[in-house]
């Protein structure tokens, strides 16, 4: 396995709990975290009364809370009541999509995501979450297209993470140059993005630039002092490439002792046995 294609759940709630990359998870966490609803008009465009607006927002807020704790039946019930008020509301469609994705009803989830984007093509949060869904399904080209669209919304608060996710998609598509460009944009907006720092380290190492790989790895360790298996693997590979036997022994010992069952440790041991 190419080491850059495996990401331990990073993350960072990063989203961050990301699997095959763990991106999927990471991506997922973002979904729930970003769920919010503020609806002021009927789908038909006519003004909504203050009472109906308050009721709709209350139902969406309750659904969001239930999604956060995994109580899917109650989440769906509140969304159904919200949909009775506004049958074509993008926020409600998106929330339904997250419920169906979480319960493994993927066709319904995709249908609801598409309905949300049809109702409001400018809803970048829904597009971002749809992209995360596509990524989790292994549909990387489609996910890349959606994440790319999200990054063009300069007012979207999740834009730095969208660039990060775009880079992860491009890694899966064997486009290291495109991935590096996306990670660079993510870091220009958030210099402490540990995932982007780590992946840039791997990319620079693969390009033969050990000095830059070491710099990114050092920055990663600064913002993420708790050693992760993937961070240790990068340290191992840099030490191996530069012939630093002391660092090599230290990183290998830490990886073996802290994460003996991790894919990173298995990968390293397989490389040593070749």
Task: Please outline what is shown here.
72% of the residues lie in helices and 0% in strands. It is mostly helical.
What do these coordinates show?
This protein is mainly alpha-helical. The protein has 15 helices and no strands. 47% of the residues are buried.
Low-confidence stretches: 1-41
The best one-word shape is elongated
Strand content is: under 5%
Give the ordered list of helices and strands. Answer: HHHHHHHHHHHHHHH
**Radius of gyration from the CA trace?**
21 Å
Can you count the helices? 15
Q: What structural category arises from helix and sheet content?
A: mainly alpha
Sheet with the most strands?
Answer: none
Mean residue pLDDT? 86
Percentage of residues in helical conformation: over 70%
Q: How is the secondary structure organized here?
A:
Elements: H1 13-16, H2 23-34, H3 50-69, H4 72-85, H5 90-102, H6 106-119, H7 124-136, H8 140-151, H9 159-172, H10 176-189, H11 194-206, H12 210-223, H13 229-242, H14 245-258, H15 263-273
Helix pairs in contact: 2-7, 3-4, 3-5, 4-5, 5-6, 6-7, 7-8, 8-9, 9-10, 10-11, 11-12, 11-13, 12-13, 13-14, 13-15
